[in-house]
Amino acid sequence: MTASQERGAWGSRVGFILASAGSAIGLGNIWRFPYIAGENGGAVFVLIYLLCVFFIGFPVMIAELTLGRNTEKNPVGAIKTLAPGSSWKYVGSLCVLTGFVIFSWYCVVAGWVVGYLYKTAAGHFSNLEDPSVTETIFINFASDPWTVIFLTLFFISLTGYVVFRGVKGGIEKCSRILMPLLLVLLVLLAVRAITLPGASEGLVFYLKPDFSKIDINVILAAMGQALFSLSLGMGTMITYGSYLSKKDNIPTSAAWVCTFDTGIAILAGFAILPAVAAMGLEYGEGPGLIFQALPSIFGAMPGGQWFGIGLFLLIGIAALTSTVSILEVPVAYMVDEKKWLRKKAVLVTCSVAFILSVPAALASGASEFLSNLPILGKDFFTVISTLFGPISLAIGSLFIAIFVGWRWTVSKAKEEIESENVRFVIGNLWNFTIKFIAPVTITIVFIYTFWNTFFG
Is 234:60 a contact under the CB 8 Å cutoff? Predict the structure, then answer.
């Protein structure tokens, strides 16, 4: 098999958009967005988030896709091609490392989703209405080492199978099936949630901005969520961009991906926050909203079991479309730089990721040491998912923006974007944003996230 066949290519523009949207649409949209919005004022957070997607996320996504298509390489290969012999290659290495580590802990949470899908279908929450009981159920579940390790291995294996099938036959085909299903499920759940008695309070909270709630924490949380949810800073969009045809319009494709990603996040808020209000729960339940708070309402909600099944199936699909794209980053690196066959790259990457995922899986109660690290006083999962999550993504996005804006230069990037007679209508605005606005705002997000996590 030739090198180009090993790398693969998109079968169509629609396939690329669905796969890229699937990459961006994941736990960050379905799990994280609703509780972050709940913690930060609802509608006013959503408004700031939309502005951050347009002024920060969209420009950086264009930059990543352009890097990939111009070089037809993974993050390391792309930067080595454009800045040979320089230290910039380490930015690409950081992207690959970030994607690899995120894949390991991301599959832990995805495994929890699979476990809760089974629990909900089996009726474990049908007669429970007390959040304290569902909290105990989650603690017992997360503390069972064999269960969480098996579920993590299952999700890693499922992701590996899709990536092993290649770009067109695996990633694109999977996205064409799962993305429409995800959208249908989410719309059904949103309709069910907003028609619950008492859901109107949640709709007001979600749709009517209270500008008195705006503060620096809300703004920075919205910036961080925009970066996290769009899969920026870990080389996914560089890798996916490397499979693009020269005939594809990069700004339009990036706009579609951002639109899909943002739309799904907004829909997820409609599916969850009105239900939270209808059942008298707090909006700011935090990360435990999905696994601890919401299961307590399944028994009280009419059709609650089916709502729960749909919810966890939805989150599972979103997680899979993301883990597939995340795994493709280190696999593409091995295929491009080490000249490995795709099969070998997938098997080795998944095996090492599984080994790394074990301590993350055990850190939520199964291991006392990992659940409360002597250093920092936090559990291993929180430490690794923050370092190789919001913090690492911010660093990666920052240096990619600086590299495209100042090292490779925006003029050369524009030449790539405008090839095949493409009109880059917002070219001047993008130039200013990628050179000045994006680096400054991403730096602020990085400092805030780091300080708030470890010293706040």
Answer: no
Q: What is the pLDDT of residue 43?
A: 93
Side-chain half-sphere CA neighbours of 399 within 13 A: 19
346-391 pLDDT, tens digit per residue, is 999 999 999 999 999 998 877 777 777 656 667 788 888 888 888 8
- Distance CA(302)–CA(448), nearest Å, equals 42
* Cα–Cα distance, 101 to 34 (Å, whole number): 24
* Beta strand ranges found along 231-323 (DSSP E): none
Residue 154 backbone phi and psi in degrees, to 5: -60, -45
Q: Is 387 exposed, middle or buried (0-12, 13-18, 19+ CB in 10 A)?
A: middle
Tens digits of residue pLDDT in 53-65? 988 899 999 999 9
**Using CA of residue 103, residue 139, residue 373, residue 224, what is the dihedral sign?**
positive
* Helix ranges (DSSP H) in 338-374: 342-362, 368-371
CA distances, 7 to each of 339, 361, 367 (Å): 10, 32, 40
Q: Are 443 and 233 in contact (CB under 8 A)?
A: no
Its pTM stands at: 0.87
- Return the CATH number at 120: 1.10.4160
160 within 8 A of 324, measured Cβ to Cβ? no
| φ/ψ of residue 84, rounded to 5 | -60, 140
Question: Of 168, 171, 25, 115, nearest to 361 (Cα)?
Answer: 115
Helices and strands per DSSP (H, E), number in the chain:
23, 0
- What domain count does the chain have? 1
Burial 108-143 (b: 16+ CB within 10 A, else e): bbbbbbbbbbebbeeebbeebbebeebbebbeebbe
How far, in Å, CA of 225 to CA of 207, rounded? Answer: 18
The upper half-sphere exposure of residue 416, i.e. CA atoms within 13 Å in the direction of its Cβ, equals 24
Written as six digits, the tokens of 439 are 């680096």
Question: At CB < 8 A and 24+ separation, what contacts does 10-13 make?
Answer: 10/167, 10/168, 10/172, 10/243, 10/244, 10/245, 11/168, 11/172, 12/172, 13/245, 13/248, 13/253
Evaluate if residue 20 carries a pLDDT over 60: yes
Taken in order 333, 404, 400, 233, the sign of the CA dihedral is negative
The pLDDT score that the predictor gives to residue 227 is 76
Are 354 and 153 within 8 A, CB to CB?
Answer: yes
Given a contact cutoff of 8 angstroms between Cβ atoms, the answer to whether 281 and 293 are in contact is yes
* Structure tokens given for 69: 């298509």
* Burial degree of 2 (CB within 10 A; 0-12, 13-18, 19+): exposed
Domain range for 97 is 3-454
CA angle 228, 51, 254 (to 5 degrees): 60
